[in-house]
Amino acid sequence: MQQLAIFGGTFDPVHWGHLLIAETALHQVPVEQIIWVPSLNPPHKQAVAFQHRLEMLKLATKDNPAFTVSLIEVNTPETSYAINTLIDLAADYPNTHWYWIVGLDTFQTLPRWHRRHELTQMCDWLIAPRLLGGENIAQSELICKQVEHQLRNQSIIIDWQLLHIPLVGVSSSLIRQLIRERQSIRYLVAEPVRVYIAAHNLYAK
Ligand code: ATP
Fold first, then answer.
1. What is the pTM of this model?
2. What architecture is domain 2-167?
3. Which has the closest alpha carbon to 11: 114, 19, 181?
4. Would you say the CB of residue 130 lies under 6 angstroms from ligand 1?
5. Which end of the chain offers a freer environment for a tag, N or C, measured as fewer CB atoms within 10 Å?
6. What are the residue ranges spanned by the domains of the chain?
7. What 3-state class would DSSP assign to 200?
8. Ligand 1 neighbourhood includes 171 CB (under 6 angstroms)
9. Is 193 helix (H, G, I), strand (E, B) or coil?
């Protein structure tokens, strides 16, 4: 049975934190492929056009043969939910053990996800610790255990592990803010992504 990981996100834009998380999952678990799934209509966010986010994701991931960018959410008529994505991907990749990659902040919202009972039966969770305000890895683990406990109260048992990555404070919001303030984003995103953003004048206002 093959092992694949889904990495969903808005990727507005994709940054080094995302790439580091995906690369770590490849080696730590190990999984054979990371399937990057840019959301078409993120449930809680406003984002630049899907085509721009997709193009930047392709540019950032093209050098890594274990990275695949999925267009699965293009066929999602309205809001994209994880459960729909996983059901669709499972049909395309039979005989697969699935992992879902999330940052710690996203993982904390799992107890409220749409159709979480079904979703959590279909995949295990790889959690990237995230600097949310001074946490260290031990605190990240504690937060994960709290989420696990909340889910258990809903009769949901999950399988999860923390990814061992250096805590990275970079976020897409930070990148957007730096661009608005006309500061440099070099080394915070892959170079072709930086060039793409400049060429299309993205996030400038
Ligand atoms: P924004 O700042 O706009 O909220 P983001 O940087 O969180 O964006 P997303 O595309 O929303 O980027 O993130 C996709 C996934 O990657 C989410 O699960 C998020 O928690 C995780 N993630 C993003 N950046 C980091 C980081 N620096 N460390 C750990 N996890 C991260």
1. 0.94
2. 3-Layer(aba) Sandwich (3.40)
3. 19
4. yes
5. C
6. 2-167
7. helix
8. yes
9. helix
